[in-house]
Design brief:
α4 (115-151) packs parallel to α6 (208-248), α4 (115-151) crosses α7 and α7 (256-288) packs antiparallel against α8 (295-322). The longest helix is centred in the C-terminal third of the chain and has 41 residues, at 208-248. The chain has 339 residues and is mainly alpha-helical. It is 72% helix and 3% strand. It has a single domain, classed as Rhopdopsin 7-helix transmembrane proteins (Up-down Bundle), CATH 1.20.1070.10. Strands 1-2 form a two-stranded antiparallel sheet.
C-alpha cells in the first residue's frame, strides 16, 4: 500500500501502469517516463522512507498508547474534552499500527497480503484523513459551547461524559460511512505483464481518471473544506464573544482551567492543519494543473504524505507540554513504584 494517499496525480500522458496511477510510486514507472539518472534519487527514497515511517510508527504508537492508558486509568482525567482526546488517540494508534505494512510493501515493491487485508489497510489509511479533523471539529464545537455558557453565566447539564461517549461513537460511525466508498473500490491489482506484481489500489470503473479525480474532490470537500470552514466559523464567533465580554464587563471571560483547555484544543487544531493543509492544497494543484512526474515532484509528494502521517504522533507531546494534568499523569505512570 505504498503512498496510497499521495497528493499528486501523475501525468496521464506518460505510460504509467494502473498501480502507479493510483500510487504515484517511483518504483513502478515506465522506463520511457523516468530517466535512468533519477533512479539514484529513488534509491535514496527506498532507504529514507522506511526510516521515516518507522520513527512515526514507534513514536506515535508509544505516545498515543500512553495517552489512552492515562485517560482510562486516572479518574481525574475522565472529562468531556479528554473523551474526545481519547478517541483521537485511538484513531491515531490504529493508523500507526498499520504503518509497518506500508513499510513492508515499500521494501518488497509489491502487495503480498491478500484482498481482505488490502481493503482493511486502505480503509484505515483513508480513515486517518478524516478522523483527526472530525474529532477536532467536535472538540471545537465543545469549546464554543463552553465559552458561550461562560459568557452567559449558564450551566450546561447536557455536557456530560456520557454524552461525549455518544458523540464520539457518532463520529466513528460518520467517518466509517464516509470511508466506505474507498473500502468498496479497494482491491489487489495484478499487472498483466507480471502475475507476481500485485498492488493494493483503488480499482475504479472506467473512465478511471474521472473517478480518481472525483475521489480527490470528495476527500477535499468532506475531509477539509467542510470541517475546516466549521472550525474557522466557531473560533471566529468564540473570539468575537470573548472580545465583547472584555469590553462590556470587568469579569474574566474564562476561568484559568477553561482557558488552558481552550488554548490546548486550539494548538492541537493548528498543528493538525499545519500537517494536513499541504496535502489538501496539493490535491487542488493536482486537479487544476497537468504536472509531469519528476524526481522533485515525487520528493515533494512523499514529504507532504510523511508530514500528514506525522500528525498521528505529535498530539501526545502537545498534551504533555500544554496540560498540567496530562504531564503529572505521564510522570506518575513512568515512576517506578516499590513492591
Amino acid at each position: 500500500m505504498e503512498n496510497i494517499t499521495s497528493p499528486f496525480i501523475p501525468n496521464p500522458t506518460c505510460n504509467y501502469s494502473m498501480d502507479l496511477y493510483y500510487h504515484n510510486s517511483p518504483n513502478r514507472s515506465d522506463l520511457n517516463c523516468t530517466p535512468p539518472a533519477d533512479y539514484f534519487f529513488y534509491a535514496d527514497l527506498y532507504v529514507v522512507l522506511p526510516v521515516i515511517y518507522s520513527v512515526i510508527c514507534a513514536v506515535g504508537l508509544t505516545g498515543n498508547t500512553a495517552v489512552i492508558y492515562v485517560i482510562l486509568k486516572a479518574p481525574k482525567m475522565k472529562t468531556v474534552t479528554n473523551m474526545f482526546i481519547l478517541n483521537l488517540a485511538i484513531a491515531d494508534d490504529l493508523f500507526t499500527l498499520v504503518l509497518p505494512i506500508n513499510i513492508a510493501e515499500h521494501l518488497l515493491h509489491y502487495w503480498p497480503f491478500g484482498e481482505v487485508l488490502c481493503k482493511i489497510i486502505l480503509s484505515i489509511d483513508h480513515y486517518n484523513i478524516f478522523s483527526s479533523i472530525y474529532f477536532l471539529t467536535v472538540m471545537s464545537v465543545d469549546r464554543y459551547l463552553v465559552v458561550l455558557s461562560t459568557v452567559r453565566s449558564k450551566r450546561m447539564p447536557y455536557r456530560t461524559y456520557r454524552a461525549a461517549k455518544i458523540v464520539s461513537l457518532c463520529v466513528w460511525l460518520l467517518v466509517i460511512l464516509i470511508v466506505m466508498p474507498f473500502t468498496v473500490f479497494a482491491g489487489v491489482y495484478i499487472s498483466p505483464d507480471d502475475s507476481d506484481r500485485k498492488s493494493c489500489v483503488l480499482s475504479f470503473p472506467s473512465p478511471e481518471s474521472l473517478w480518481f479525480k472525483a475521489s480527490r474532490i470528495y476527500t477535499l470537500i468532506l475531509g477539509f473544506a467542510i470541517p475546516v470552514s466549521t472550525i474557522c466559523i466557531l473560533y471566529t464567533m468564540m473570539l468575537y464573544k470573548l472580545r465583547n465580554m472584555r469590553l462590556n464587563t470587568n469579569a474574566k471571560a474564562l476561568d484559568k482551567a477553561k482557558k488552558k483547555v481552550t488554548i490546548m484544543v486550539f494548538i492541537v487544531l493548528a498543528v493538525c492543519l499545519f500537517c494536513w493543509t499541504p496535502f489538501h492544497l496539493s490535491t487542488i494543484v493536482a486537479l487544476t494543473t497537468d504536472l509531469r512526474t519528476t524526481p522533485l515532484l515525487i520528493g515533494i509528494s512523499y514529504f507532504i504524505t510523511s508530514l500528514s502521517y506525522a500528525n498521528s504522533c505529535l498530539n501526545p507531546f502537545l498534551y504533555a507540554f500544554l496540560d498540567d494534568s496530562f504531564r503529572k499523569a505521564f510522570k506518575k505512570m513512568l515512576e517506578c513504584r516499590p513492591a
